[in-house]
Amino acid sequence: MSSTRRRALKAAVDLIGTEGIRALTHGRVDAAAGLPAGSTSNHFRTRAALVAGVIEWMAASDRSDAGTPEIRSRDELVAALSRMIEVESGPLAARTRARYALFLEGDEDAVRPLREQRIGMEAWVHGILLALGGESAARSTVFLMAAAEGLLLHRITVDPDAAIADVVARAVDSSLAS
């Protein structure tokens, strides 16, 4: 991927994450990325193409960042989920806000890569719960995902300093006790 395209996509995510999806225009992306006028439209001819490009880039970035490490214990699961929430509500908060905005306002075709990424994350958590606590724990996958996502949303909207590890530990323990 060219550096111009990468700069445009990063700037687009930052714009959506800080100002909302309505702020996403080719001109505003060029300005935010410090690119010459017209650069973004050279890579993404329409706004729909720009939105689709942003979503695909975010999904690829999420996959790369998550890494989905091998988890062999309750403590490793708590630590991994806590790190993900910390990063997504800290250094990557704008990307997290952008993801929520796109989920809410993007059309089904454009949002497909984010939904596929979410399904992959759910499968990863399901496999871990199955390995650590058996079938009954695995049935708590949606609960654990919702608890983690709720905490993430709380941190980026209400309390950026809300405790993470204790909440995640309680959710993991509840899931494993199922």
Task: Outline the secondary-structure elements.
Elements: H1 3-19, H2 26-33, H3 39-43, H4 47-66, H5 74-89, H6 93-105, H7 108-138, H8 141-157, H9 165-177
Helix pairs in contact: 1-2, 1-4, 1-6, 4-7, 5-8, 5-9, 7-8, 8-9
Q: In which range does the helix fraction lie?
A: over 70%
Report the major sheet: none
Number of strands: 0
Name of the CATH architecture: Orthogonal Bundle
- Please tell me the total number of domains: 1
- Report low-confidence residues grouped into runs of 5 or more: none
Helix run count: 9
Our estimate of the beta-strand percent is: under 5%
N-end to C-end Cα span: 45 Å
The global form is elongated
Mean pLDDT: 90
Q: Which CATH class is shown?
A: Mainly Alpha
What would you call the structural class? mainly alpha
CATH topology: Tetracycline Repressor, domain 2
CATH superfamily: Tetracycline Repressor, domain 2
